[in-house]
């Protein structure tokens, strides 16, 4: 089970995130990025964060630790922003926390080199979970202590928005053309050989068990939270078997210059102006 903490202070909103996550402090003296149940994206975003975050970490990818976090909206009383106030009020009770990586930088493919093996592992994993949110437009990767960290798995597993079609979705291909790591010569065959056998029913069952019952309750067509967990396990298990052969890397949709300012590139690897 995920550890549980209680939010003690709302520090600041992270405005670059579409769902307006917030930095909060908690009663374990930790600092977290909090994702709110009351955000417009809905609770399935949080389910996806838990399933994919826990799965990614179990497969050896770097994903910041997750925790359950209790929120009393009263801690945001002094927050002047109406949007934040609304979000906090709508999110009393259980929410999701991700360990905050202080000083982490947004990944820039022109400033930070990624090896073929690691690029392959990340793309294979994103194909498994059908992540459409690791593109050069929005990489959702951080660089921290010189290493790549994966964040933001809210927009994955599109099939959980349409369970009757989920079995068919398990066999669908993954187009990695716009993936931010597509240009690093990803070794997809090695990644599939290494990771696919590790995506076992046992591992997926463990991962699904970390999703709080509250976020799985009352799902139409299911007889309770455990039945929904089972559905996540089945689709991912099926998908892991063959997705390695169904990843395509074609032409990127449009070229894009580096987003990072010069000083960031110098700080990252000393190679200015690449
Ligand atoms: N664990 C973390 N440590 C440090 N910074 C983080 C962490 N998680 C998120 N951030 C920062 O907050 C931003 C928003 O987070 P995230 O992408 O998870 O939010 P989102 O609302 O799901 O965003 P999106 O607009 O991509 O849907 C990230 O781009 C990153 O800059
Ligand atoms: Mg994001």
Automatic annotation (TrEMBL):
InterPro entries tied to this protein: HipA_2
Protein name: HipA-like kinase domain-containing protein
Region (Disordered): 248-274
Domain HipA-like kinase: 14-240
Record field: compositional bias (Basic and acidic residues): 248-257, 264-274
Domain of life (superkingdom): Bacteria
């Amino acid at each position: 089970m995920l550890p549980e903490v209680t939010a003690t202070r709302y520090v600041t909103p992270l405005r670059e995130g579409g769902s307006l996550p917030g930095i909060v402090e908690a009663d374990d003296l930790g600092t977290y990025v909090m994702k709110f149940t009351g955000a417009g994206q809905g609770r399935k975003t949080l389910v996806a964060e838990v399933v994919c975050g826990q799965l990614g970490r179990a497969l050896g990818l770097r994903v910041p630790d997750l925790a359950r976090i209790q929120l009393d909206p009263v801690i945001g009383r002094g927050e002047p922003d109406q949007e934040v106030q609304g979000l906090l009020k709508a999110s009393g009770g259980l929410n999701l926390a991700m360990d905050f990586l202080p000083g982490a930088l947004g990944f820039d493919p022109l400033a930070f080199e990624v090896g073929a093996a690691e690029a392959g592992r990340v793309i294979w994993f994103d194909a498994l979970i059908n992540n459409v949110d690791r593109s050069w437009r929005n990489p959702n990767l951080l660089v921290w202590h010189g290493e790549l960290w994966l964040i933001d798995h809210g927009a994955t597993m599109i099939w959980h928005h349409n369970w009757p079609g989920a079995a068919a979705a398990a066999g669908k291909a993954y187009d990695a053309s716009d993936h931010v790591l597509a240009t690093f010569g990803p070794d997809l065959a090695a990644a599939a050989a290494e990771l696919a056998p590790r995506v076992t029913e046992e591992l997926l069952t463990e991962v699904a068990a970390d999703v709080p019952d509250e976020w799985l309750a009352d799902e139409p067509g299911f007889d309770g939270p455990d039945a929904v967990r089972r559905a996540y396990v089945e689709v991912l298990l099926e998908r892991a078997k063959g997705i390695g052969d169904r990843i395509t890397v074609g032409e990127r949709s449009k070229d894009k210059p580096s987003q990072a300012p010069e000083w960031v590139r110098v700080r990252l690897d000393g190679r200015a102006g690449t």
